[in-house]
C-alpha cells in the first residue's frame, strides 16, 4: 500500500480514537509508505479562534479557547515500529507525544498543528534518523525553538504570533543547526532572534516574513522587526543560489541597501519576489538588482492578498528612504531571464520592464505571464507597448503565457 488517508470530520471522543487506531494499524499491516491523518474538526475550531471565521462548510460558529478543545493525540500504533512508513502528514491535531516514536525509515514529516513545543520537536527529530523533509506550522508558545538534525535537507517553518493589546506576547529564539540542510523556508511575523548555525550546504531559501493583516481596533501598532530578522539571517546565506522574498522582505532589503548595507548574497542566481497586490511602484525593484551581481533569473510574482495597513507602511518607507529606480551605468546586469505577472490595469509593471530591457544586454527571454481573463484589445496594447521598448539584447525573446482572451 503506497498511500492511506484518514480524515476525522466529527467531534473527537474516546470511541473515535479506537477507530483511528484501528485504521492506522490496518495501514501499517499493509505496508503503508505514506500516511495522512487530518483532524478536520479541531482544525476548523482552531481556524475560528485565530481568524474569527470558519470555513464555509464548518458546522461550528462559536469561538472556543484552546483549553476547551479535546486533545487529539497521535494514534498509539504510531509508537510501535513502522518499517514501511516514509511519509507522514498530520493536520489539525494538537500534538502530544507520550513515549518514543519508532520512525527509522521516515523521510518526510509534515505537521500542521498548534500545540507542540520544543521538547516535542526534539523528540520527533531524535526518533527519525533518516528524516530529510520537515514542514511544520505552530503557534508560538513563548519559548525558544531549536532545530538540530544531521539528516534534514529541507526545513519549512511557519509560526503564528499571538498579540495582546496590539503587542506580541513575547520574544523567542529560533536556533537552526542542520549541516546538510539545502532548502530553508521561514514564514510568519518575525518576533525574536534567529540563529543559524552550520548551514554551509544551504543553497535555496524562502524568507516569507509578513505583518498581521488586521487588528480589532484598526491597525496593529507593533513595529515589525523584519529588518532585524534579515540582518540576523542573511549573513549565513552566502552560498544561497535560489532566493524567494516576501513583499515585506523586499521592502526592508531596499531600505537596508539605502543604508549602505553590504550584501552577502553574491551567489544568488535566481530571485523570486512575491509582490503584494497593493504594491504599486515596481521600479523600486531595480534598486535590488545591485545586491545580486550574479543574478541570472528574476521572477516578479503577484500575490492576491491585500494587507489592510500595507499602503500606509509602504508609502511611509518610500518617502523616508527614497528608493532608487535607476541602475548605475557601470553595473553589469547579468540577467538571462525575467518573468513578471500582469493583470489588466497593472500598468506599474511596465516601467520596471523598460529599465531591465534597457540594461540587460545578455537577456535571452522575457516571460510575460498574464493573470486571469484579459480583453483582446488590452492584450494587444500591452504587446505593442512591450515591443516598442528599447532592448540592449536584440535576440531576447518576448513570451506571453497563462492568459485567457475575452473576445
UniProtKB/TrEMBL annotation:
It holds the Pfam family LRR_At5g56370. It comes from the Eukaryota. Transmembrane segments: none annotated. InterPro entries: FBL13/AtMIF1-like (IPR050232), LRR_dom_sf (IPR032675), LRR_FXL15/At3g58940/PEG3-like (IPR055411). Residues 71-158 form the F-box/LRR-repeat protein 15/At3g58940/PEG3-like LRR domain. This is F-box/LRR-repeat protein 15/At3g58940/PEG3-like LRR domain-containing protein. The lineage of its organism: Eukaryota, Viridiplantae, Streptophyta, Embryophyta, Tracheophyta.
